[in-house]
């Protein structure tokens, strides 16, 4: 382990401004306890906490460094007896990065997905049961995000559907199932409405009648799905069978590839 870790974000901050002491709530010192048996990691997270709460921080660099640290050391965190507090505060910190910068919001969404996804890969049934109350609150917080932040999760090659499907290898309490259903429902409604906007905008450019008809029929199908989603007609098992944004993206790419193979393509070639 490298004892000489120096944060790039810290170096940038020291170059532009100097704050003698960065203040943050004592609850975040739980990370120092979690990594107390690993002096290099403890020093690293101490520096990162200073950067996270630095008043003039470079948000993108700090997020990248915190992301790297958490993903590398998540196994240690999840084995510690303070795992519940540490796990909750990890996401407490991540949600703080949502703001006005679009690139930062997309990176934040990707990081949240990555940590959740790796968590499900790492934990066993007992550990999942321990952290499930925290997982429930995290998924609930995701469901209730403002639209401008929630849509960032549909700009990643991660999928709520895949994540929740992976969770089903564990026992899900009725409370967690309801939260999972709410999260999937909101993501599907946004996805299908985005598809409809795309079709309404570009359908007239399609001169091939059978393809145009297929898109119109799919739009009608999504209208029906949205109505059923709004009235909560699906259980979790059936929700997991519905197409998500990645499924539609694959279909769209296939369509673009087909159209580009024609003489009069309406789409530019993908680079």
Model description:
This protein folds into 2 domains: 1-139, no CATH class; 159-271, no CATH class. It is built from 13 helices and no strands. The chain has helices at residues 8-16, 30-34, 39-52, 59-79, 83-95, 102-122, 125-143, 147-150, 160-167, 174-202, 209-230, 236-239, 245-260. Mean pLDDT is 85; it is low at 1-6 and 263-271.
What features would you highlight for this structure?
mainly alpha; 271 residues; globular
| Number of H- or I-type helical stretches | 13
Strand percent estimate:
under 5%
Helix content: 55-70%
Poorly predicted tracts of residues: 1-6, 263-271
Termini gap:
41 Å
Average pLDDT? 85
In the residues, how many domains can be counted?
Answer: 2
Q: How many β strands by DSSP?
A: 0
**Rounded to an integer, what's the Rg over CA atoms?**
22 Å
Order of helices and strands: HHHHHHHHHHHHH
Shape: globular
Could you describe the largest sheet, including whether it forms a barrel? none
Which structural category do the helix and sheet elements fall into?
A: mainly alpha
Present the secondary structure layout.
Blueprint: H1 8-16, H2 30-34, H3 39-52, H4 59-79, H5 83-95, H6 102-122, H7 125-143, H8 147-150, H9 160-167, H10 174-202, H11 209-230, H12 236-239, H13 245-260
Helix pairs in contact: 3-4, 4-5, 4-6, 5-7, 6-9, 7-10, 10-11
């Amino acid at each position: 382990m490298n004892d000489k870790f120096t944060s790039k974000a810290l170096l940038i901050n020291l170059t532009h401004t100097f704050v003698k002491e960065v203040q943050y709530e004592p609850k975040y010192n739980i990370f120092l306890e979690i990594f107390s048996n690993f002096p290099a990691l403890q020093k690293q997270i101490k520096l990162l906490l200073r950067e996270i709460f630095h008043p003039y921080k470079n948000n993108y660099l700090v997020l990248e460094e915190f992301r790297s640290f958490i993903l590398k050391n998540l196994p240690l965190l999840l084995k510690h007896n303070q795992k519940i507090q540490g796990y909750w505060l990890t996401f407490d910190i991540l949600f703080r990065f949502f703001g006005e910068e679009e690139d930062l919001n997309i990176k934040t969404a990707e990081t949240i997905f990555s940590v959740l996804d790796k968590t499900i890969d790492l934990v066993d049934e007992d550990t999942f049961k321990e952290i499930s109350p925290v997982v429930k609150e995290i998924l609930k917080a995701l469901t209730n995000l403002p639209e401008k932040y929630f849509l960032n999760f549909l700009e990643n090659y991660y999928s709520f559907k895949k994540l929740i499907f992976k969770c089903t290898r564990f026992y899900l309490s009725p409370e967690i199932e309801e939260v999972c259903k709410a999260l999937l429902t909101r993501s599907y409604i946004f996805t299908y409405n985005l598809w409809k906007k795309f079709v309404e905008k570009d359908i007239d450019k399609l001169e091939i009648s059978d393809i145009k008809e297929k898109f119109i029929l799919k739009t009608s199908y999504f209208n029906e799905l949205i109505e059923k989603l709004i009235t909560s007609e699906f259980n979790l098992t059936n929700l997991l069978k519905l197409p998500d944004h990645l499924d539609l993206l694959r279909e769209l790419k296939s369509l673009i590839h087909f159209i580009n193979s024609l003489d009069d393509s309406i789409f530019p070639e993908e680079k």
